[in-house]
Amino acid sequence: MPHYAAGAPGAIHLVLQGKGGVGKSFVALHLAQYFVDRGVPTAVFDSDPLTPTLSNYQALAARYINFMLDDDELDVGQFDVLANEIVEACGHVVVLDTGSSNFIPLMGYLRSNDVVRVFTELGRHVVIHSVLVGGAGARETLGGLVSMVENLPADGYVAWLNSFLGPVLFDGKPFEETKAFGEIRDRLTGIVRIKHRRGTNQMLHLKALQEMTRRHLTYKEAMVTAQFSLWDRQRLAQARREVNQQLSVIFGCEAPVAAPVGEG
Q: What pLDDT is stored for residue 1 in this prediction?
């Protein structure tokens, strides 16, 4: 059953993961565009202290607030600024991208100060998104998701299985067959699978997505940019559609989807 509150103004979406290089900012970017393209008022925040991404996208008007000090300690005053702006954006869906480098201090502060609970008591629906990958980062990303579910009392949790760099397996098992999944399955709002393709097809899809992010373009902007070929635009539209269909099942947002390739 769709979680409509998670797709309505007032919802807060936190994208968290302690492992770097797993596609966390891509998830936040896609999530922000999903709500914007459906006409939902959306407030986007970027707090990655090392590699801010969303704040480079003019179309998203993301607000960059770094709440880390040079000694890797959390700047409580700056975090208060961020938290207050999130509270004030009560008429918007909020999407916050964080960094892997501030994950540990942020998790500690959120937990010890009941920040998520405060948002909930203010009537805000909080959803935590975490990215899982296979390979060398499998255990770390899975452990991060379990830690968030166990320590942060959100209204929902979404696991994103990013297979861009290979199958998402844990000791040879898919996510749903792991002990960790069994422990948290009742608290998961949904699972989003970023599809892995074979051979050259995967390479070309990945190349188109990388070029779009390198240029700091949204999907909508890329569709009308001459530097992208018809077939690259088709690949981007396909990748976007595959994820959006899954998000629609989770959040129940059924408003306008992307225009056909080649149209504005």
A: 60
CA distances from residue 255 to 38, 60, 193 in whole angstroms, order as listed: 5, 19, 21
How far apart are alpha carbons 156 and 125 in whole angstroms? 8
1 contacts: CB under 8 Å, gap ≥ 6? none
Buried b / exposed e along 30-50 (16+ C-beta atoms within 10 A) = bbbbbbbbbebebbbbbbbbe
- Is 34 in contact with 89 (CB distance < 8 Å)? no
Q: What are the backbone angles phi and psi of residue 113, rounded to the nearest 5°? A: -110, 10
Residue 229 CB partners (closer than 8 Å, separation 6+): none
Distance separating alpha carbons of residues 225 and 204, to the nearest angstrom: 17
Contact 97, 45 (CB under 8 A): yes
> What is the 8-class DSSP label of residue 154?
-
Q: 48, 60 in Cβ contact below 8 A? A: no
Phi, psi of 152 (to 5 degrees): -115, 115
β-partners of residue 136 are: none
Q: Print the SS3 string covering 189-258.
A: EEEEEECCCCHHHHHHHHHHHHHHHHCCCCHHHHCCCCCCCHHHHHHHHHHHHHHHHHHHHHHCCCCCCC
d(CA 115, CA 98): 15
Distance between CA 10 and CA 126 in Å, rounded? 9
Cα gap 217→59, rounded to integer Å:
8
pTM: 0.92
Which residues fall within 8 angstroms of residue 206, CB to CB, at 6 or more apart?
164
* Stretch (H or E) spanning 35: helix 24-37
Express each pLDDT in 56-68 by its tens digit.
999 999 999 999 9
